[in-house]
Amino acid sequence: MKEDDVRLTPISNGTVLDHLPIGTALKILKILGLEKPDKAVTVAINTESKHSKTGRKDLVFIEGRELNKGEYDKIGLIAEGATVNIIKDSRVEKKIDAELPEKAHGLFECLNPKCISTVEGLPSRFDLSKRPLKARCWYCEKTMNEQDLFKAIK
Amino acid sequence: MGFSLTDIISINDFSKNDIEFVLKKAEEMEKLPKNKKNSVLADKVIASLFFEPSTRTRLSFETAIQNLGGKVIGFSDAGVSSTKKGETLSDTIINISGYADMIVMRHSVEGAARRASEISPKPVINGGDGANQHPTQTLLDLYTIKKQFGKITGLNIGLLGDLKYGRTVHSLMYALEKFGNVNVYCIAPESLRMPHEIIEEANGSIKVEETAKLNEFLPELDVLYATRIQKERFADEFEYEQIKNVFILGKEILKNTKKGFRIMHPLPRVNEIKPELDKTEAALYFEQSRNGVPVREAILSILKDVKK
Question: Confidence class of residue B204 from pLDDT cuts 50, 70 and 90?
């Protein structure tokens, strides 16, 4: 735990999402289904950061839950550059940089009601590109922009 | 270099080499004597699954299959298939790929052909999936241009009509972009302009100009590719009434065009090309429609030995 995080209660087991771009913490709670969590979730928004370019960041502490690969990918989609810290017995066991994946399989649904993946309820397949963030459906070839993606990510 | 695809689903899957491979094969098919051609698909069964009505695409595919000596099974109306009983497309395709050596399909759902290609161990050819793709149309458009002008690069090509929703003109733009060195003139009313992102992607490789005036670039054009303006695309009927006659092509346009100028159209037309143009040298649209047969023969012949 770094010096600038001292105002937050450290967790002993779970996940710490660090270096989240400002404004992404609440979106992340939504996509991880943590709006009404069973255990403690602590959120810091627009907190000071010595290591971030903007000098500010968001932070999320999730007690008792270790995130999986699909969840890192979802975080990479909306908060590229964030760090996922898996905490066990109050120590950082694993540190993963959340990166935008090139492909997204089953992470979110296609918004096109006429797409075969929607019509037949198939697992979605998207090719992703960044700056600007775009997701192209492998089936119907429709492209979703960042705004559509936030709508589509559950 | 050979052909890299195992299914024909989207023009976006093609490299320039793949397109040229098909165009060259189509040229060969036109020259192939009948007695040699009719053994290309000997002992092959081709499923022609038209879940949606089609005239030119289905009949030209089925003509191509017959010309190559293949046998056709299938339907031309989803009402006579198990779809009516609620069977999913996925199940229909798994079943039919057990009977046929190749599947040609048209479906109203976008991405249907891609899904079929994913689950079928046999090659799938997309004959149109809703508003998404119709790759064999684009290939026959390119073949028609190549056959007429001996080249694709260096030409001035006008795209006219509904450029906002028109599937054929979008695919043609993407295909021309792979060739590069083509001047494309997008001629459309304000509300039906070519989507900005398509122009943005294409610009650089090809030069794109936009106008709402048919006459502005007419004297420069080698080809004018006309498309239908559909009334249902307009939110405002008044706007439709105002512009519907602006883009109707008649004999008078030929006073303002260069030698060798040709008009193309994916057909069916409604009133956007007057019949008075049909007998003129400029009318290339019926020839374009006929070219569907050698192009589809080429595709069937290329895919017949593909192992997925």
Answer: confident
Give the minimum alpha-carbon distance from A140 to chain B in angstroms, rounded to a whole number.
Answer: 4
Would you call A120 an interface residue with chain B, using a CB distance cutoff of 8 Å? yes
Q: Which domains does chain B have, with CATH numbers?
A: 11-133+292-303 (3.40.50.1370), 136-289 (3.40.50.1370)
* Optimal mutation site among A122, A125, A139, interface B, most CBs of chain B within 10 A: A139
Q: Provide the CATH topology of domain A3-97.
A: Alpha-Beta Plaits (3.30.70)
Task: Tell me the average pLDDT across B72-77.
Answer: 92
* pLDDT above 90 as % of chain B: 81
User: Which residues of chain A does B91 touch, with a Cβ-Cβ cutoff of 8 Å?
Assistant: none
Q: Is A141 on the interface with B (CB under 8 A)?
A: yes
| Chain A nearest C-alpha distance from B130 (Å) | 8
Residues B36-52 as b/e (b if ≥16 CB within 10 A, e otherwise) read ebeebbeebbbbbbbbb
* Residues of chain B neighbouring A143 (CB-CB closer than 8 A): 197
* Cβ–Cβ gap A117/B90 under 8 Å: no
Instruction: Tell me the pLDDT tens digit for each residue of B228-278.
Output: 887 777 777 887 887 777 789 999 999 999 999 999 999 999 889 999 999
ipTM for the predicted complex comes to 0.90
Q: Which residue has the tokens 């030069």?
A: B207
Read off the amino acid at residue A44: A
What dihedral do alpha carbons A100, A106, A110, A111 form, nearest 10°? -90
Q: CA A154, CA A127: separation in Å to the nearest integer?
A: 18
Query: Mind listing the pLDDT tens digit for each residue in A4-13?
Result: 444 556 789 9
For chain A, domain boundaries: 3-97, 103-152
CB-CB contact of B50 with B106 (8 Å) = yes
| pLDDT at residue number A154 | 61
Q: What is the pTM of this model?
A: 0.89
Distance from CA of B91 to the nearest CA of A (A): 11
On chain A, the residues whose CB falls within 8 A of the CB of B174 are: none
- For the domain made up of A103-152, give the CATH fold: SH3 type barrels. (2.30.30)
Which amino acid belongs to residue B17? N
